[in-house]
Amino acid sequence: MLEIRNLSKTYNNKVIALKNVSLTVNKGEFAMVLGLSGAGKSTLIRSINGLISVEAGSIEFEGVSVSNKENINKIRKDIGIIFQQFNIIKRLTVLENVLCGRLAYSNTIMSSLKLFKKKDINWALDCIERVGLKEKAYVRSDQLSGGQQQRVGIARALAQQPKLILADEPVASLDPYSAEEILELLTEINKKEGITMLMSLHNVMLAKKYGNRILGIKNGILVFDKQVIGLTEKEMQLIYTMDTSLIKEKQQAV
Ligand SMILES: Nc1ncnc2c1ncn2[C@@H]1O[C@H](COP(=O)(O)OP(=O)(O)O)[C@@H](O)[C@H]1O
Ligand SMILES: [Mg+2]
After folding, report:
1. What InterPro entries does the entry give (predicted)?
2. Cβ(242) to ligand 1 under 6 A?
3. 43 lines ligand 1 (CB under 6 A)
4. CA-to-CA distance for 33 and 45, rounded, in angstroms?
């Protein structure tokens, strides 16, 4: 489904963010990208839907090249993305935010006038129900908790009927309980609806609990790529060196 070949990215001609990264994501997978802060996780995730331009190497989604600008609208329709900071518009209602996910399907004038078709509204309401926010559809988004705001982000991604959902540290701003609720919701969407997930995280336990594959990045290099089932003790030790939360705990203990 997703083919990344020899992807490299250097910022400002000096910071090497990704170095020769190659990987394939298959349909239905829930792949977790683990790495310390600055490892290159966001650069990798954002390159996939063209938020960051590909410098060297190639990314193909279902055989279509991401680096070709002509394809970007089609690719962005098929690939939803959710972010650490939710990136929702706080003064808009939940429904209005989720309708933004339908923009790719409406013509521009219709969208700017907020004259969405009944069909789009019903579809957005259905997505809101799928993330468990039915009662909040007409509430302003700034009235919601962090976990609820991330649910809006997920509903907005679902509204575009994606084949793949990218998630860049989607639970890093949430308390541990809400974080697991969000990961459970994404797991359910992955299992029941068959939507492929590629997510960055910095917590090994969560990656192992919810993902079925772990990709480890260190200094822009893909150093680890294994299925969760069958991970050995030695491999676990290796991936623990990519867990930021453990490093923080260690620092606190000193
Ligand atoms: N827009 C940018 N300009 C310059 N350097 C950047 C930019 N974005 C990220 N970087 C650098 O690229 C490296 C990888 O960053 P990033 O992909 O954000 O890592 P992660 O998401 O794993 O924390 C880091 O050294 C970071 O400082
Ligand atoms: Mg990041």
Report:
1. AAA+_ATPase, ABC_transporter-like_ATP-bd, ABC_transporter-like_CS, ABC_transpr_PhnC, MetN_ABC_transporter-like, P-loop_NTPase
2. no
3. yes
4. 9
Q: Considering only CA atoms, which residue is closest to atom 27 of ligand 1? A: 38
Q: Is 13 in the pocket of ligand 1 (CB under 6 A)?
A: no
Distance 54 CA to ligand 1 centre (A): 14
pLDDT higher at 104 or 47? 47
Ligand 1 contact via 115 beta carbon (within 6 Å): no
| pLDDT band per the 50, 70, 90 thresholds, residue 254 | very low
Number of domains in the chain: 1
90 residue type, one letter: K
Residue 219 Cα, ligand 2 centroid: separation in angstroms? Answer: 13
Task: State pLDDT tens for residues 103-156.
Answer: 755 555 555 546 778 888 999 999 999 999 999 999 999 999 999 999 999 999
Q: Which helix (H) or strand (E) holds 124?
A: helix 118-130
Range of the domain at 245: 2-253
CATH number of the domain bearing residue 29? 3.40.50.300
Q: Where are the beta strands (DSSP E) in 35-138?
A: 56-61, 64-65, 79-83
Share of the chain above pLDDT 90, in %: 69
Nearest atom of ligand 1 to the alpha carbon of 217:
22
